[in-house]
């Protein structure tokens, strides 16, 4: 295993090809495997080796934290494609007892702990976003009949008075005048309300307060949205 000579263009090309479908040298989080290979590279790979350059810049951002990254740093010959031999001649070294090391021992366990921590962080972020998601606001569409005192009532002024009523959760809509007999017309006006903020009792109280123009108010239609 290895990348050839990582200080040569050929070795960097091997590294670039190796990272084409990987984010890290080993596993799914930055580890000592990345540190070992990073320290063997003499500098940023050229721009045409985009995968190697992306990896290099990412691992470089952990420079102050590299000692705390999970895993055990091993020789370069323990990383990379199986059919390439390491010839860099520098970097991490193995102990003489390296052949007896369980490659799936503590290194694997440490990565598993790191993966578990990341998963828990992602779950916490998801729950936080879920909690902040705005609750569904219950709304209703209401059609009101507002009746004047007689046929001499100024209906334009009556409507102006009704629309002057403003409240959080109240939106006035279309309106029309509907004949009721003897030359008298009533104002039929639509509004949309948030159920927790505006009720028909409040609307009736405020509309009938314009007693110079309004005789009464009735709810002609009430539909949940």
Automatic annotation (TrEMBL):
Region span, Disordered = 80-100
Q: Keyword set for this entry?
A: Coiled coil, Elongation factor, Protein biosynthesis
Taking the record's annotation, the residue ranges forming a coiled coil are 101-132
Sample GO molecular function, one term: guanyl-nucleotide exchange factor activity
Which Gene3D superfamilies has this protein been placed in?
1.20.1050.130, 3.30.70.60
UniProt similarity note: Belongs to the EF-1-beta/EF-1-delta family.
* Its biological purpose: Catalytic subunit of the guanine nucleotide exchange factor (GEF) (eEF1B subcomplex) of the eukaryotic elongation factor 1 complex (eEF1). Stimulates the exchange of GDP for GTP on elongation factor 1A (eEF1A), probably by displacing GDP from the nucleotide binding pocket in eEF1A.
Q: How does it assemble?
A: EF-1 is composed of 4 subunits: alpha, beta (alpha subunit of the eEF1B subcomplex), delta (beta subunit of the eEF1B subcomplex), and gamma (gamma subunit of the eEF1B subcomplex). Interacts with elongation factor EEF1A1.
This chain belongs to which protein, by name? Elongation factor 1-beta
Query: Organism source for this protein?
Result: Pan paniscus
């Amino acid at each position: 295993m290895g990348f050839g000579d990582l200080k040569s263009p050929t070795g960097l090309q091997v590294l670039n090809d190796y990272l084409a479908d990987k984010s890290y040298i080993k596993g799914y989080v930055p580890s000592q495997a990345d540190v070992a290979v990073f320290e063997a590279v003499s500098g940023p790979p050229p721009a045409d080796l985009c995968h190697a350059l992306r990896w290099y810049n990412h691992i470089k951002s952990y420079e102050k934290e590299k000692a705390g990254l999970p895993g055990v740093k091993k020789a370069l010959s323990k990383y990379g494609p199986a059919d390439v031999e390491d010839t860099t001649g520098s970097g991490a070294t193995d102990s003489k007892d390296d052949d007896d090391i369980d490659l799936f021992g503590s290194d694997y366990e440490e990565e598993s702990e790191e993966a578990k921590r990341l998963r828990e962080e992602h779950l916490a972020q998801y729950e936080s976003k879920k909690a902040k998601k705005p609750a569904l606001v219950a709304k209703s569409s209401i059609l009101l009949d507002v009746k004047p005192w007689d046929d001499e009532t100024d209906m334009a002024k009556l409507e102006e008075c009704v629309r002057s009523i403003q409240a959080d959760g109240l939106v006035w809509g279309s309106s029309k005048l509907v004949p009721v007999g003897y030359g008298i017309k009533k104002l039929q006006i639509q509004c949309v309300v948030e159920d927790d903020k505006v009720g028909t009792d409040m609307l009736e109280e405020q509309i009938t307060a314009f007693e110079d123009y309004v005789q009464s108010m009735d709810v002609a239609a009430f539909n949940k949205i």
